[in-house]
Structures are given as C-alpha cells and as structure tokens.
Specification:
Elements: H1 2-11, H2 24-37, H3 51-64, H4 66-74
Helix pairs in contact: 2-3
Length: 75
Amino acid sequence: MEPVITAWKAAHPSVSGHQGRYTMREVANALLYQGRTGCQWDLLPHDFRPSGAVRRYFYTWRDDGTDQTIHDLLR
C-alpha cells in the first residue's frame, strides 16, 4: 500500500507546499478500520485522525481510482 499512497501523494502536491497534517499511515489505518467495521464516519474512534480528514481522502481516492488499486493489492 505504501508505494501506491506515496505515488499518489507525489502526484497531488499541495498548492501551498504544505505536506499535510496527518501521516498517510494514520489515514489508511482509519479507512481500513471503517471498511472492516462499517461504522459511521463520525463514530471513528478518537485514536484516528478527524473523520472529516479521513472522509476527504476516501472520497478523493474513490473518485480517482486509488481505492480500487489499494483494494486489488490487498486482495
């Protein structure tokens, strides 16, 4: 998963040059948890990043196909 996410991050740099507040590992862990449990976004445990940030990555990755690439790697 790491090479796919790293490549995505390199292809989508921030306009301001900001690297992001959250590590991609933390975001991926939250997405895997949500997929495994099926919990609502707002009910993610507080150990994870804020649900709004995780949800934004989910929708972005869903729209550009990155989630499918990760799914195929894990399968």
